[in-house]
Fold these 3 entries.
Entry 1:
Amino acid sequence: MNHERLSMRLERVAIHIPKGSLLADIGSDHAYLPCYAVTNGLCEGAIAGEVVEGPYQSARKQVAMTGLEEKIEVRKGDGLEVLNPDEATCITICGMGGTLISSILESGKEKLGMAKRLILQPNVGAANVRSWLIENDWELIGEEILEEDGKIYEILIAEKGDPLRPYRVNKQNGIMFGPHLTKEFSDTFIKKWQLEKKHLQRIIEQLDESGRSGLETKRNGLKSQISVIEEVLEG
Ligand code: SAM
């Protein structure tokens, strides 16, 4: 992967950056996404935020190597603290857990004033991100699911709006499975939830094999999660 050829995961993220955006990519590692977005004319300029020294230096090197210092500023700091409130119109936070993404958004809420679009790509725990969006009046306008190198990724795209609009059918299931992904019902979506079901079944087997007592509540919780997955998979 480099700034010319992104991973499929980041390419799918880039597709949702509105043309003319001022982009902030938080947790930018090598700054591949902002370099790609600027090089391809998706955004006017970008800020790459990174909290860890090593990845921050890699991002700086990448921007220098591509000669984009005029258009991309690499800033070191925690989450959205690297931004002024009126700087970014599109914010991407990718390749982290959903809990971390939600906590970055929560701690930097006051920096989201100018943001028109959030593109979030949690590696796990997408439900956390969907809940945060609902609680903070962001409407989930689209979702993607894709498989790359044996891993399944979800991408959530949100704009300010009616946060409950996508969840009219079943809010609880919508948060867990993704309202748009459920509707689309792609092969990758089916595969993800079949794998999750198997994983939960394996945990139940391990509980049974352990022979420990007092695990009934846990077992029942897992069984009801499996039933919900089965219901969704049956359509
Ligand atoms: N966004 C890139 C991608 O999707 O390929 C890099 C993903 S990498 C797995 C996650 C990056 O986020 C790491 O470089 C890590 O240092 C950075 N990171 C984690 N927590 C952060 C925070 N609170 N603020 C800024 N960067 C953070």
Entry 2:
Amino acid sequence: MKALILAGGMGTRLRPLTLSTPKPLLPLLDRPMVMHIIDSLPAEVDTVVLAVSYMKDLLEGYFLKHDCGRKVVLVNEEEPLGTGGAVRNVRQYLDGTFLCFNGDIISLLDLNDMLAFHRRHGGIGTLALWRVQDPSAFGVVGLEGARITVFQEKPAPGEAISDLINAGVYVFEPELLEHIPPGVVSLERQVFPNVLDRGLYGYRFDGHWVDCGTPAGYLEAQRALLERGRTKVAPAIVRGSELIGPNYIDGASLSGCRVGPFVCALPGASIGEGSTVEGSVLMEGATIGRGCTVRACLLGPGTVVKDGSALQGRALAPLRGRQAGLH
Ligand code: GTP
């Protein structure tokens, strides 16, 4: 079986981090975001097709260096074709029922159970559906029994037809490809509403789901993984520091600081005397000086936070010699 991962988006909501790293390669604890999806695939998936475009060379480089136990095929779009165009663009690599993912989703979905559900219902596709309190930022789905009858894109508060949203994980029959026109096409807006009569089903699941495409989602996914026990405490140097778990500290240097909970600090990162860091990511080589307070921040590789800084809810990355930031 093939699994298709849509990994060609520009990740604008995670800028400036995504100006130097494509979103699928941003680290979530010990591995890039996209590897959390690949590692969760059922055993019957032998080939992963990645639909790439933005910063495809970095993705290619990563998969040349890392064996993920399955055949990986990268298919490029010269210009991003949208989620539907990307599926059409890889059609020669697909045969039979296939899985399809947005490349920035972390979930506890049982893919084997979803595949069994899809086979039982026999439609052209099955969409994983996640229940949220406020669906106004999402694609909302209306059901009759298990069958999807209507889509609603980002409804105004109070006008949502249900609290179930499209979770960006799908099972499709190859017949779906016949319903995707050439060019730039959105799966969600232009394809799904046109194939309702062919049988689109909604698979609800519980447990956990996060869209890591925003700074808040990224940090929520990290927190969820840490709460599930994906912790590590292996600093390179630790001098008189207080660690409040859970954290993922791998090869970072900590001196007289207070770290945690929910901090990920990767090799070469460092935190100086008298600093407090909570709920944040320090990618490789990110440096926090002395006397800083850093909360809910994403610090890209090599970011430097100057002594005495107070940062909350920021995404920062060094950019062509200077530092870029997003509030
Ligand atoms: P934003 O710019 O922050 O909205 O992020 P994004 O570009 O990743 O868009 P979005 O989060 O809506 O995309 C959902 C998934 O589809 C992500 O995994 C993207 O990589 C992927 N995606 C979006 N547009 C394209 C595209 O044109 N081509 C391909 N191959 N993938 C895409």
Entry 3:
Amino acid sequence: MSKGLMETTSKFLSYVLRHEPQAIGLELDSEGWGEIDALIAGAASEGRPLTRELIEQVVRDNDKKRFTLSADGQRIRAAQGHSNKAVQLQLQERQPPAVLYHGTATRFMDSIHQQGLVPGSRHHVHLSHDPDTARSVGQRYGQVVVLQIDTQAMQARGCKFYQAENGVWLTDQVPASCITEV
Ligand code: HQG
């Protein structure tokens, strides 16, 4: 399977499983699961041939483990990154490391200083356990800045942390006072 096909398929799966399942007539339950047969049929009706083998390979080899198969292999979901309102992952609260990182672009910093980090269209603010990952996330939006997040200060203010099944840390928002630039 070519790297290009794997990447295009990963982007397509991110689009339908995180954001717009209705674009291919797919239904997701509140835990984000969609039937693989319905995904394949919906994708085909939009002129995008998908096979179970291709889907399984993308799930297995994806660099960020973005997708998970159900135990019976019949359903698939995105681990994190959702904006779709039908999805409301029941995430377990977890104790984070003392410091987490968030990569963003310099042009967002005025607003971040004022409001802290907010989820935007997604359900959560995404945080990384290492600065390198945060750097590559931030680079998607322009000149990158890596922010260090004081998770203990956040917890003292009542903020909660969750970890997606691919290891990405999630929280509802990050107060400006808990952020320093690396
Ligand atoms: C910024 C990728 C202005 C925030 C990554 C970010 C991640 C603010 C952008 C996942 C702000 C939202 C998510 C504020 C936050 N004012 N801008 N108050 N608060 N922002 O894409 O974290 O490769 O929704 O810094 O690995 O960049 O797709 O979030 O720049 O895990 O699997 O608003 O997406 O994963 O952007 O990325 P996003 P993100 P995948």
